[in-house]
Amino acid sequence: MERTLILIKPDGVARGLVGQIVARIEAKGYAIDALDLRSATAAELAAHYAEHEGKPFYQPLVDFMSEGPIVSIIASGQGVIPGFRSLAGATDPTAAAPGTIRGDLGRDWGEKVQKNLVHGSDSTESAEREIGIWYPAEG
Ligand code: GTP
Ligand code: MG
């Protein structure tokens, strides 16, 4: 079964939006196969964001992701990889369409990094790679 790695980033946890975000994933019909709340290690973040190393937003992004606990989720279902990206909405919460997680629940907070509540894998290869980072036993 197709699966994806979802993160509820520190802004989503701090703002008390975990229940609403999980409810949207479930309401769409995807299964929650694993769910865990904890702070990320520096090694996990370096591995997760390796593709962005060297970009101007890399360090602000890693700092932001280290601000507090994260919820990591493995979700599954036919089409879940693009389906969750569609639920999440555009990367920039200001541009994200109403009806999406980022469009309904996110905004510009005037900071260097886009605090956009969630992450979702963008391909089958990314999903399997990221599941291996956050859930080594499931990789
Ligand atoms: P993720 O699901 O978090 O991976 O978001 P994404 O796939 O929509 O975006 P991408 O992987 O390109 O970037 C990862 C994260 O870096 C984003 O979620 C943003 O928080 C941040 N980011 C990406 N592009 C920019 C940018 O141009 N400027 C700033 N400030 N942050 C960015
Ligand atoms: Mg991405």
UniProtKB/TrEMBL annotation:
Active site per the UniProt annotation: 119 (pros-phosphohistidine intermediate)
Listed GO MF terms: ATP binding; metal ion binding; nucleoside diphosphate kinase activity
Pfam entry (one): NDK
Ribonucleoprotein in keyword set: no
All residue ranges annotated as the Nucleoside diphosphate kinase-like domain in the record: 1-139
Main localization (coarse): cytoplasm
Record-linked SMART domains: NDK (SM00562)
SUPFAM superfamilies: Nucleoside diphosphate kinase, NDK
Localisation per UniProt entry: Cytoplasm
Catalytic reaction(s) noted: a 2'-deoxyribonucleoside 5'-diphosphate + ATP = a 2'-deoxyribonucleoside 5'-triphosphate + ADP; a ribonucleoside 5'-diphosphate + ATP = a ribonucleoside 5'-triphosphate + ADP
Function of the molecule: Major role in the synthesis of nucleoside triphosphates other than ATP. The ATP gamma phosphate is transferred to the NDP beta phosphate via a ping-pong mechanism, using a phosphorylated active-site intermediate.
HAMAP family: NDP_kinase
Family: Belongs to the NDK family.
Annotated protein name in UniProt: Nucleoside diphosphate kinase
Organism expressing this protein natively: Brevibacterium sediminis
